[in-house]
Each structure stands twice: as C-alpha cells, then as structure tokens.
Amino acid sequence: MNKKTKVTTRRISETYSEESTIGSVNLNAIAAQLPPKLEGQWIVTVVRSFGRFRGITCDEALRDMFHEAIGAAIKAGMDAERKGGNVEAYVKRAVKSRLADLQRREDYRDMRLVNDDTKIMARGARSDFKAALMMISPRARQIWRAWKRADGLMACFAAELGTTKYLAETKFLPILTGEMREALAYVKFIRRG
Fold it and tell me: Among 45, 58, 60, 166, which has the highest number of CB atoms less than 10 A from its own CB?
C-alpha cells in the first residue's frame, strides 16, 4: 500500500455516487414483484430503518442488506408452509433476526484493526448510547453538550444554555430526554431484533 492510499471505513457498496457504474436501484419496485406473503414492502421499510441507523440512505447501498433479508424471508416462508405455520409471522421473525445478525457483524467489523502503513488503530463499536446520540436532532445534541459540560448540575446547566433553572428543567431537559428515550428504544430494537 503506498502512502497516498486512503483507508476508508465504509464498504464499496456504501460509497455510491452519481458516477458509479451500478445502475439505479429502487427497493420498492423490487418488493412489488415479490409474492404478497413475503411482506416485501415491510422488508423494504425495515431494511431502510437498519440503513438509517448506519447512516446509509440510498437504495443502491442497501441492496445487499435487502437481498439478505429476502433470502431469509424465502427460507422462512418455505419452513412455515412445510410446518403449517403462519407465513407472515415466520417471515417477519426471520428477517428481523437476519438483519440483527448483520448489524452485529457490522459492529464486529468496526472493532477490527485498520492498518494504513503509518499506524494501526482500533475502531471501537458504538455503544447503544453513542449510537442514540448520533440519531437525535442538532438542538437536542446541543442540549446534551450543555448538560455534559454542567456535569449534571442544574444551575450550571441553565448557565450553559443562558436561561433560568426553571426553563432549563421544564423546557430544555424534556427535549433531550424525550428524543434520547425514543432513539435508545430504536437502537435497541435494531440491535436485538
């Protein structure tokens, strides 16, 4: 590897650009061609949610994850028909399980060592809390930074925000706690299926 080689932290499929030779992909169009029992549109929604957690929003970059989910859905549908179970329930359980497994693999990949010829650095996987922090609004993140700098003291927190203790406690803190509660629940749902 020469000195000009840049180490990236994303897979090739995640760096989609307009100049790419990969054709445009619309997951909704692919899902529309699937049998109704495979819950294609539901799978698209779940895959996009998992992608959003990773910061991936274009369908081209989510294609691999979508195909993994479809494979799990087809296998689960065949198992359900063989056992006489509810196909939709089998499909939803299998897809969530497969996507949660892919999420764990991505976390493991994030912990591996990266070598760029001059240094070796370990990239740690994000905790649930850090992942949730990335998902909240910029306003809530600003409130979080003020809370952290204030070390949890309400008077210092109010001073950081430039407001009164009453407003800091009744107006600003609920914004942060509400968004963090929702983001943490979302992260836990995605990681644990």
Answer: 60
